[in-house]
Amino acid sequence: MLKKLTIVAFAAALAAAPLPVLAQSKKDSVVMGMTLEPPGLDPTNAAAAAIAEVTLYNIYETLTKINEDGTTSPLLAESWTASPDLKTYTFKLRKGVKFQNGEAFDSAAVKFSFERNAVPTSTNKDKSLFQSFESVAAPDADTVVITLKNSEPNLPFLVGQASASIVEPKSAATNVTQPVGTGPYQLGAWVKGSSLTLNKWADYRNAAAIKLSKVTIRFIGEPAAQIAALLSGDVDAFPRVTTRGVAQFRSDPRFTVLIGGSKAKTIVAINERKKPLDDVRVRRAILAAIDRKAMIDGAVEGFGTPIGSFYTPGSLGYVDTTGINPYDPEKAKKLLAEAGITTPLELSLKLPPPPYARQGGEILAAQLAKVGIIAKIENVEWAQWLSQVFAGNGPHNFDLTIVSHVEPFDLVKITEPDYYLGYNNDAFNALYKQIVATPDEAARAKLLGDAQRMLATDAVSGYMFQPQWPTVANKKLKGVWKEVPQFENDFSAWSWE
Q1: Which segments within 192-344 are labelled E, that is strand?
Q2: Class for domain 265-467, per CATH?
Q3: 60-169 has which fold?
Q4: pTM score over 0.90
């Protein structure tokens, strides 16, 4: 409580201070704020969304580009066609493109990138996508043919994600710290723990259209510091900023406030590899103890829509499953008793740095305590969370955690045997195979509804809410996105008025 009061008082003091002139002495440069610092700069070998926020469409490019409205358009591929069964896609590549180290971009680079993502030792977060490719053929320098094991209507979208970035083979091993792509920006300085600079690449094929010559990204995790940096003019824009200062910025004529929808799912993840969490009654008890509305109000200031499964409103085949595991503390106690649990039951709760997780964790612990579950909070840094909780090779050292999964179309994750949740349900895996083998959209939508109901019934996770992401920007900065189909910041579209 003291921390919250301090933040409010600090923000109020800043608001009362004389309004500074926002920093924009150079109209061809911008300073952007980010909550999390990326652990590296290769989006093809790690899961952190912060990597894409820095690199996607800026340093690296993909075959397609995902637009603000979720549609896809040509990028490194000029065009593509699909077979009627949606199992074969032919991409025609853009000619005359070079990597930032001078090497030519061609079909061999695409084949290398996708096959590298699929090898057993790959740490690509979408490895299962690339392993679903039967083959990647390069019949000539300007053509790539992808043959899939199952139909995939979303492939043009999926190959526009950061995990499908095209890398230059010679540079692949060092991209984590010395990224090489085909995009309009190159890495300048990276001061770990503080900031990162991107400089316009003079030899980019369409350099004349790029308005910003320099982008400085400052890493600011503390909500009060995020608010202060915007108010003082130290940063010009802050996508996915803390929800706490939104009302204040809406009443300040210097700023534009954008509230964007997303395909993200904020969940209480449950480690089903551990007893007694392998008992569905215990998982249902955890879900029955969670008051979604209180979580949304307390963790994200109301900026969220309740969800009951690993799927979001607006997606193909969405069904409302929030009624399957409603808030019911008395039912939670009964379920624990039925499972033979002697309370208090102690569980670990590992929380990564984002405010929704840290604030949400406090609320979750209080809610669980009311039904006899003691959640022992352990705050961890992002790198620790990735290695201890999420990493495919384990150790999956957690009972509960809170995290937002920001990627669309990621139901496939639930089928992966080494996925951190440890669900491993043959019935769900068979249903998912049926989904991807069904090209008819109406039939696929029905099966997707079945999948959502199964995940909710099995209480695979505590599904909480679909977040809405606020972005605050200087009113004179143009091209900043409102909607968030995925985590990205396309600086090629940014400019000053």
Answers
A1: 195-200, 214-219, 237-238, 255-260, 265-270, 304-306
A2: alpha beta
A3: Dipeptide-binding Protein; domain 1 (3.90.76)
A4: no
